[in-house]
Amino acid sequence: MYTGDGSRDAKWPGQEAWVSFNELWITNAHIIARSCDLRYKQPNNNAQETNDLYDAIKQVAHETRVDHRFIFAAVMQESEGCVRAGSNGDKHGLLQDYKGAYSCNKDGKVQNPCPKDQIVGMIRDGIAGGTEGNGFAEDINEQSGKVGHDVAWAYYRASRQYNSGSIDGSDDLEKGGSGKHCYASDIANRLMGWVDAASTCTLDG
Protein backbone atom coordinates (compact mmCIF):
# COMPACT_ATOMS: atom_id res chain seq x y z
CA MET A 1 0.00 0.00 0.00
CA TYR A 2 1.60 3.25 -1.14
CA THR A 3 0.90 6.36 0.90
CA GLY A 4 2.09 9.94 0.78
CA ASP A 5 2.57 12.33 -2.11
CA GLY A 6 3.59 9.91 -4.88
CA SER A 7 7.30 10.77 -4.72
CA ARG A 8 10.36 8.55 -4.55
CA ASP A 9 10.98 9.94 -1.07
CA ALA A 10 7.62 8.47 -0.05
CA LYS A 11 8.71 5.09 -1.54
CA TRP A 12 6.57 5.20 -4.67
CA PRO A 13 8.14 3.35 -7.65
CA GLY A 14 9.89 5.30 -10.37
CA GLN A 15 8.94 4.93 -14.02
CA GLU A 16 11.97 2.74 -14.68
CA ALA A 17 10.55 0.13 -12.29
CA TRP A 18 7.27 -0.27 -14.20
CA VAL A 19 7.02 -3.56 -16.07
CA SER A 20 6.88 -3.60 -19.87
CA PHE A 21 3.66 -3.01 -21.79
CA ASN A 22 3.83 -6.50 -23.30
CA GLU A 23 4.14 -8.08 -19.86
CA LEU A 24 1.21 -6.04 -18.57
CA TRP A 25 -0.89 -7.06 -21.56
CA ILE A 26 -0.07 -10.77 -21.35
CA THR A 27 -0.55 -11.09 -17.59
CA ASN A 28 -3.90 -9.28 -17.70
CA ALA A 29 -5.25 -11.06 -20.80
CA HIS A 30 -7.34 -13.55 -18.79
CA ILE A 31 -9.02 -10.68 -16.92
CA ILE A 32 -9.84 -8.78 -20.10
CA ALA A 33 -11.27 -11.96 -21.64
CA ARG A 34 -13.90 -12.38 -18.92
CA SER A 35 -14.41 -8.87 -17.51
CA CYS A 36 -17.59 -7.95 -19.38
CA ASP A 37 -19.50 -10.94 -18.07
CA LEU A 38 -18.13 -10.88 -14.54
CA ARG A 39 -18.26 -7.13 -13.98
CA TYR A 40 -21.07 -5.86 -16.21
CA LYS A 41 -23.15 -8.93 -17.14
CA GLN A 42 -22.50 -8.22 -20.82
CA PRO A 43 -21.01 -10.35 -23.62
CA ASN A 44 -17.26 -10.66 -23.22
CA ASN A 45 -14.86 -9.02 -25.65
CA ASN A 46 -14.33 -10.96 -28.85
CA ALA A 47 -10.81 -11.31 -30.25
CA GLN A 48 -11.18 -8.38 -32.64
CA GLU A 49 -12.44 -6.05 -29.93
CA THR A 50 -9.50 -6.95 -27.70
CA ASN A 51 -7.09 -6.38 -30.59
CA ASP A 52 -8.74 -3.03 -31.25
CA LEU A 53 -8.28 -2.12 -27.57
CA TYR A 54 -4.57 -2.94 -27.83
CA ASP A 55 -4.24 -0.79 -30.96
CA ALA A 56 -6.26 2.07 -29.44
CA ILE A 57 -3.99 2.26 -26.40
CA LYS A 58 -0.90 2.38 -28.61
CA GLN A 59 -2.48 4.97 -30.93
CA VAL A 60 -3.60 7.35 -28.18
CA ALA A 61 -0.27 6.96 -26.36
CA HIS A 62 1.43 8.14 -29.55
CA GLU A 63 -1.02 11.02 -30.00
CA THR A 64 -0.79 12.30 -26.43
CA ARG A 65 2.69 11.11 -25.36
CA VAL A 66 1.14 9.53 -22.30
CA ASP A 67 3.00 6.31 -21.42
CA HIS A 68 1.08 3.37 -22.91
CA ARG A 69 1.72 1.35 -19.74
CA PHE A 70 -0.07 3.98 -17.70
CA ILE A 71 -3.01 4.08 -20.13
CA PHE A 72 -3.35 0.32 -19.85
CA ALA A 73 -3.16 0.41 -16.04
CA ALA A 74 -5.90 3.04 -15.98
CA VAL A 75 -8.09 0.97 -18.31
CA MET A 76 -7.70 -2.04 -16.04
CA GLN A 77 -8.47 0.09 -12.98
CA GLU A 78 -11.60 1.62 -14.50
CA SER A 79 -13.15 -1.19 -16.56
CA GLU A 80 -10.81 -4.20 -16.64
CA GLY A 81 -10.72 -3.76 -20.41
CA CYS A 82 -14.40 -4.48 -21.05
CA VAL A 83 -15.41 -2.64 -24.23
CA ARG A 84 -19.05 -2.80 -23.06
CA ALA A 85 -18.30 -1.23 -19.69
CA GLY A 86 -21.43 0.23 -18.14
CA SER A 87 -21.86 3.85 -17.08
CA ASN A 88 -21.58 5.16 -13.54
CA GLY A 89 -23.67 8.31 -13.49
CA ASP A 90 -21.99 10.72 -15.93
CA LYS A 91 -18.91 8.50 -16.30
CA HIS A 92 -18.76 6.31 -19.37
CA GLY A 93 -16.67 3.83 -21.27
CA LEU A 94 -13.35 2.06 -20.87
CA LEU A 95 -11.89 4.90 -18.80
CA GLN A 96 -15.14 6.05 -17.18
CA ASP A 97 -14.45 9.58 -18.36
CA TYR A 98 -16.83 12.40 -17.47
CA LYS A 99 -19.67 12.75 -19.99
CA GLY A 100 -17.66 10.88 -22.60
CA ALA A 101 -19.11 10.88 -26.10
CA TYR A 102 -18.08 7.28 -26.81
CA SER A 103 -19.42 4.08 -25.29
CA CYS A 104 -20.70 0.66 -26.31
CA ASN A 105 -23.04 0.49 -23.32
CA LYS A 106 -24.87 3.73 -22.71
CA ASP A 107 -28.48 4.78 -22.12
CA GLY A 108 -29.66 1.20 -22.43
CA LYS A 109 -28.01 0.69 -25.83
CA VAL A 110 -25.39 -2.06 -25.97
CA GLN A 111 -23.27 -2.47 -29.09
CA ASN A 112 -22.09 -5.97 -29.88
CA PRO A 113 -19.68 -5.98 -31.54
CA CYS A 114 -18.22 -2.70 -30.31
CA PRO A 115 -16.87 -0.74 -33.33
CA LYS A 116 -13.21 0.23 -33.40
CA ASP A 117 -14.03 3.93 -33.65
CA GLN A 118 -15.92 3.68 -30.37
CA ILE A 119 -13.02 1.89 -28.68
CA VAL A 120 -10.51 4.48 -29.89
CA GLY A 121 -12.90 7.26 -28.89
CA MET A 122 -13.29 5.90 -25.37
CA ILE A 123 -9.53 5.79 -24.89
CA ARG A 124 -8.99 9.20 -26.48
CA ASP A 125 -11.69 10.88 -24.36
CA GLY A 126 -10.25 9.42 -21.17
CA ILE A 127 -6.67 10.41 -21.99
CA ALA A 128 -6.88 13.52 -24.16
CA GLY A 129 -10.14 14.74 -22.64
CA GLY A 130 -13.62 15.17 -24.02
CA THR A 131 -15.83 18.17 -24.63
CA GLU A 132 -16.76 18.51 -20.94
CA GLY A 133 -14.19 16.64 -18.87
CA ASN A 134 -10.43 16.60 -18.41
CA GLY A 135 -8.48 13.59 -19.53
CA PHE A 136 -5.47 12.09 -17.80
CA ALA A 137 -3.08 13.99 -20.12
CA GLU A 138 -4.20 17.40 -18.90
CA ASP A 139 -3.85 16.33 -15.28
CA ILE A 140 -0.41 14.83 -15.96
CA ASN A 141 0.73 18.03 -17.67
CA GLU A 142 -0.53 20.12 -14.76
CA GLN A 143 1.40 18.02 -12.26
CA SER A 144 4.51 17.86 -14.48
CA GLY A 145 4.83 21.62 -14.27
CA LYS A 146 5.81 21.37 -10.62
CA VAL A 147 9.57 21.27 -10.36
CA GLY A 148 11.67 18.90 -8.32
CA HIS A 149 9.86 15.66 -9.12
CA ASP A 150 10.06 12.94 -11.75
CA VAL A 151 7.53 11.81 -14.33
CA ALA A 152 6.11 8.97 -12.25
CA TRP A 153 5.19 11.44 -9.49
CA ALA A 154 3.08 13.40 -11.99
CA TYR A 155 1.32 10.24 -13.17
CA TYR A 156 0.39 9.14 -9.66
CA ARG A 157 -0.91 12.56 -8.72
CA ALA A 158 -2.83 12.83 -11.98
CA SER A 159 -4.45 9.49 -11.14
CA ARG A 160 -5.82 10.87 -7.90
CA GLN A 161 -6.91 14.09 -9.58
CA TYR A 162 -8.70 12.21 -12.37
CA ASN A 163 -10.51 9.97 -9.92
CA SER A 164 -11.57 12.52 -7.34
CA GLY A 165 -11.33 15.89 -9.13
CA SER A 166 -8.70 17.26 -6.77
CA ILE A 167 -5.75 16.43 -4.54
CA ASP A 168 -6.03 16.90 -0.80
CA GLY A 169 -4.31 19.95 0.63
CA SER A 170 -1.98 17.69 2.59
CA ASP A 171 -0.59 16.37 -0.76
CA ASP A 172 -1.12 12.81 0.50
CA LEU A 173 -2.80 10.86 -2.28
CA GLU A 174 -4.73 8.61 0.08
CA LYS A 175 -6.46 11.54 1.78
CA GLY A 176 -9.41 13.68 0.78
CA GLY A 177 -13.14 13.39 0.93
CA SER A 178 -14.02 12.11 -2.55
CA GLY A 179 -13.09 9.36 -4.95
CA LYS A 180 -11.31 6.15 -4.06
CA HIS A 181 -8.53 6.57 -1.53
CA CYS A 182 -6.73 3.49 -2.88
CA TYR A 183 -6.89 4.66 -6.50
CA ALA A 184 -3.36 6.02 -6.99
CA SER A 185 -1.86 3.18 -4.97
CA ASP A 186 -3.73 0.66 -7.11
CA ILE A 187 -2.44 2.31 -10.31
CA ALA A 188 1.12 2.11 -9.00
CA ASN A 189 0.68 -1.56 -8.16
CA ARG A 190 -0.77 -2.32 -11.59
CA LEU A 191 2.26 -0.67 -13.20
CA MET A 192 4.49 -2.90 -11.08
CA GLY A 193 2.72 -6.02 -12.34
CA TRP A 194 -0.11 -6.54 -9.82
CA VAL A 195 -2.82 -8.73 -11.36
CA ASP A 196 -4.59 -11.29 -9.17
CA ALA A 197 -3.12 -10.90 -5.69
CA ALA A 198 -5.39 -9.49 -3.00
CA SER A 199 -5.02 -5.74 -2.56
CA THR A 200 -3.21 -4.63 0.60
CA CYS A 201 -4.85 -1.20 0.50
CA THR A 202 -7.38 -0.82 3.31
CA LEU A 203 -8.19 2.87 2.86
CA ASP A 204 -11.57 2.29 1.20
CA GLY A 205 -12.76 -0.17 3.83
TrEMBL record:
Protein name: Uncharacterized protein
Source species: Lithohypha guttulata
